[in-house]
């Protein structure tokens, strides 16, 4: 007869099986397809129930092995087995109901023993863990934002060694903007409140591993922030207020640098330009020049009209209307910068010139009107490239506003113009890739409100801002607040010295165009700003009406100068009439290129030869190269898209166009 296995040998086997179930049960449940759609906390409850059942059956088996088999013990064991089986079934049903009908309780995975963390910070820690960023630790002292707009938290990422073992999967020492979306979802699940995707913002701080995270209660970028003026004189080297961050922190930037403002129409670029002007017109060591083509009067009207017929100089030294006068202005700045660079260090005491060109792309794309400078004929684009590369050391800086950031929007020398920009401001655009193309971060939310933009530079992080609004005086525009208007701020600058360039600052180098500019606001000045740009004649220069206006202004200024000298007892009139000397200083010649097709016109002509299937960018680039116009396929492709949007050509299929 075979000997039975001893009881002491069975018990270790049972205990080993139970321990195995407890240890590997979690992995088995996590990898089971049936539980693939369940949350982590639900799978943990299933694991706890499985362990309890395994331990109960193990205890029954061990008991049955140890007791003496009598009819009483057999009845008791049978009754206990029935109870365990029925209890296991209904316990499983109860767990199933709980997992499907009861919401997960809020969990705090950050050490609850840390007495420095408040309940709000512990909730944030739970959200980080739920979103998969439990390796980031919440630091104490969260800050409440203005007007109960939300909270600002400080986070610290850790080295791999310091991260708990169960959180090392996916752990990183960085928190990118892509983490904002899953954290917003986790917060919404825990708090039960609606949280938009762009209400959570993450920003890297200077400290190693330190980040700030702002969580908003509402869309603060939809608010209108009234501008509060300070008319106190200041310096151009003092940083200017350009916007308010989402956490209410004011953002200041120096304006004595090359800057670019990009955004579509009605995106709020003008709001930022008015902010810049509000600061620059306070600066006793700065001179403001403004040029434009399409909407220059809309930009400067509020700054000039309060000074109409007052005899006071407006806070803007020079305004150029049209491509022709913009070229004169840019050339003047280039000549002043070159003159300054040749002066001894002991004499370099001059004011900074800030050149603002609004709607720059309209002028940059014009290749027909050119100006002669340094024995070469320059377009607006090529002159801008020269300015940005060479004028800064002569205290001349350019601020260009345009609707798109692509190279073709800055003319033939667009790559050089863009490469020399120090600070960029990106507003809303109809091109959804515009923000990502400029900042390099395609995960950033696209601005949706007027005056909302991103600021970034060569050595600075991307900052999300809202520009304070200066109320316009244009009656056709809505009144958004009761604060100061552009005209109010302009008139508040009347006590600040806005004298023109002096000889020691390069006035003579600025040349004829600068001397003949409008200096006082009168009917002629306003007529000049509201008139269409005169068409240059084939011999160059402005038309006769513009020249007569300039001559009259010159004679008026000379008569005033002679009268002031006469009152001082100085008579500069000659005793006898002398022939007038030949004027040596003349305006730089404006050259109108011989009539020829622009690239847009050539592309439209080439497309007239296309069949019904159309032509693609490669075909057109080859045709242009055959005519001597060598350009890349990418440039042609962007030009085709622009012409199609303007309805000058038709898109017959993806990438194919006809005239």
Describe the 3D structure:
The chain is of the alpha+beta class. The protein has four domains: 7-101; 119-218, no CATH class; 240-531, P-loop containing nucleotide triphosphate hydrolases (Rossmann fold), CATH 3.40.50.300; 599-658, Arc Repressor Mutant, subunit A (Orthogonal Bundle). The chain is 39% helix and 15% strand. It is built from 19 helices and 20 strands. It has helices at residues 7-31, 40-66, 71-101, 119-130, 180-191, 269-280, 296-304, 323-341, 360-364, 380-390, 414-419, 434-439, 486-491, 507-515, 523-530, 544-567, 599-607, 617-626, 633-645, and strands at residues 137-138, 143-144, 150-156, 200-204, 210-216, 240-245, 250-253, 259-262, 286-292, 318-321, 352-357, 369-373, 376-378, 396-402, 423-426, 452-457, 460-466, 590-592, 650-653, 656-658. The strands form four sheets. The protein has a ten-stranded mixed sheet with strand order 7-6-17-16-15-8-14-11-9-10, sandwiched between helices. Strands 1, 2, 3, 4 and 5 form a five-stranded antiparallel sheet that branches. The N and C termini lie far apart (103 Å).
């Amino acid at each position: 007869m075979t000997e039975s296995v001893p009881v002491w040998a069975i018990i270790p086997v049972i205990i080993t099986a139970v321990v195995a179930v407890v240890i590997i049960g979690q992995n088995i449940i996590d990898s089971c397809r049936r539980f693939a759609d369940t949350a982590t906390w639900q799978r943990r409850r299933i694991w706890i129930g499985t362990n309890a059942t395994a331990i109960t059956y193990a205890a029954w088996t061990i008991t049955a092995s140890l007791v003496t088999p009598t009819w009483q013990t057999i009845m008791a064991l049978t009754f206990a087995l029935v109870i365990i089986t029925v209890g296991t079934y209904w316990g499983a049903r109860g767990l199933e109901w709980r997992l499907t009908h009861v919401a997960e309780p809020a969990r705090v995975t950050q050490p609850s023993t840390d007495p420095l963390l408040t309940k709000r910070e512990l909730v944030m820690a739970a959200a980080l863990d739920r979103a998969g960023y439990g390796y980031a630790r919440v630091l104490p002292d969260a800050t409440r934002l203005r007007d109960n707009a939300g909270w600002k938290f400080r986070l610290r990422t850790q080295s791999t060694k310091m991260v708990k073992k169960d959180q090392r999967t996916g752990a990183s020492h960085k928190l990118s903007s892509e983490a904002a979306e899953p954290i917003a979802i986790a917060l919404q699940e825990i708090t039960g409140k609606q949280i938009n995707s762009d209400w959570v913002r993450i920003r890297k701080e200077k400290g190693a591993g330190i980040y700030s995270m702002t969580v908003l209660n509402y869309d603060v970028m939809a608010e209108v922030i009234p501008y509060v003026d300070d008319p106190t004189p200041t310096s151009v080297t003092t940083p200017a207020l350009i916007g308010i961050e989402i956490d209410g922190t004011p953002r200041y930037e120096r304006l004595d640098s090359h800057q670019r403002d990009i955004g579509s129409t009605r995106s709020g670029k003008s709001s930022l330009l008015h902010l810049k002007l509000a600061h620059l017109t306070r600066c006793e060591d700065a001179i403001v020049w403004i040029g434009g083509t399409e909407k220059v009067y809309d930009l400067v009207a509020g700054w000039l009209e309060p000074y109409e017929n007052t005899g006071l100089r407006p806070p803007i030294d020079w305004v150029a209307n049209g491509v022709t006068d913009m070229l004169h202005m840019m050339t003047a700045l280039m000549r002043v910068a070159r003159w300054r660079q040749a002066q001894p260090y002991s004499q370099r005491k001059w004011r900074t010139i800030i050149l603002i060109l609004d709607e720059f792309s309209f002028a940059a794309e014009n290749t027909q009107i050119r100006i002669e400078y340094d024995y070469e004929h320059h377009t607006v684009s090529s002159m801008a490239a020269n300015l940005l590369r060479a004028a800064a050391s002569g205290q001349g800086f350019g601020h260009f506003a345009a609707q798109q950031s692509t190279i073709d929007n800055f003319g033939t020398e667009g790559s050089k113009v863009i490469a020399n920009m120090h600070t960029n401001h990106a507003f809303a655009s109809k091109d959804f890739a515009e923000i990502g193309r400029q900042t390099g971060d395609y995960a950033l939310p696209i601005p949706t409100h007027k005056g909302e933009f991103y600021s970034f530079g060569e050595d600075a992080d991307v900052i999300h801002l809202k520009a304070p609004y200066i109320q316009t005086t244009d009656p056709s525009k809505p009144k958004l607040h009761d604060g100061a208007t552009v005209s109010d701020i302009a008139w508040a600058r009347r006590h600040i010295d806005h004298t023109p360039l002096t000889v020691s600052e390069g006035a003579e180098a600025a040349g004829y165009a600068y001397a003949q500019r409008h200096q006082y606001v009168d009917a002629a000045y306003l007529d000049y700003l509201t008139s269409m740009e005169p068409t240059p004649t084939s011999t160059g220069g402005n038309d006769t009406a513009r020249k007569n206006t300039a001559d009259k202004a010159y004679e008026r200024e000379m008569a005033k100068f002679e009268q002031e000298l006469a009152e001082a007892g100085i008579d500069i009139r000659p005793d006898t009439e002398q022939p007038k000397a030949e004027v040596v200083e003349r305006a730089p010649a404006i050259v109108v290129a011989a009539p020829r097709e622009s690239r847009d016109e050539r592309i439209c002509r080439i497309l007239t030869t296309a069949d019904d299937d159309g032509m693609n960018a490669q075909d057109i680039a080859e045709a242009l190269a055959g005519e001597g116009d060598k350009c890349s396929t990418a440039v042609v492709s962007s030009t085709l898209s622009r012409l199609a949007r303007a309805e000058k050509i038709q898109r017959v299929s993806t990438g194919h166009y006809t005239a």
